[in-house]
Amino acid sequence: MDIIEEAIEAFSQLPGIGPKSAKRIVYSLISSPQKGKRIEGAIERLSNDLTFCKICGNVSDGEVCKICSDPNRENTICVVGKPLDVMSFEKTGVYRGKYHVLGGLIDPLSGIGPQDLRIAELKKRVEEEKAPEVILALDSTVEGEATSTFISSLLRGSAKISRLASGIPVGSELEYTDQLTLSKALTDRMREN
To answer: The domain that contains 108 carries what CATH number?
Structure first.
């Protein structure tokens, strides 16, 4: 395999990039070495400088992320499956609380149970921070529902538990939901207990 084919193969492994798009990217980089150096630097920084917040599990360039270290944030905790979901909510500008990233969803068919996620850390955090409310903002999938049900039963009595309101289609993932729908779902969320 030559260098160009190897590069096309590598780029086509990224989500949403097929072989044709990968080919266009590679030839764009060949025609503009400056662009390639900039992308190379960004990827290197992602690999070397990015870590996960020790409090919430979101991506961070330090030990504690900017959201967790912001003293103006409310004490409500919004539980999401992955860091990309935090970015989706932050874009709405509606939510001013904190987050907790589980690092996935319960999926017995793939061998992922509650012990493989940051659920124990969530329980401890809710108790230590005396969070008044936990918002379960997980994907509207079978795995998301199973995870929400498990967490809801685990935290019952520790804090008010709410879920996102309807409006997000069943079977969809949060990262593909538009800002208006996310804003409406967050504003009109329903209490579980």
So the answer is: 3.40.1360.10
Distance CA 98, CA 67 (A): 7
Q: For the domain that residue 14 is a member of, what is the CATH number?
A: 1.10.8.420
Q: At 64, is the pLDDT very low, low, confident or very high (cuts 50, 70, 90)? A: very high
Give the tens place of pLDDT for each residue, 142-182: 899 899 999 999 999 999 999 887 667 777 888 888 887 78
AA identity, residue 1:
M
Which whole-number Å values give the CA distances from 168 to 76, 91, 158, in the listed order?
Answer: 21, 16, 27
Domain that holds residue 24: 3-49
Q: In what order do the strands lie in the sheet with 160-163?
A: 98-101, 77-80, 133-136, 160-163, 190-191
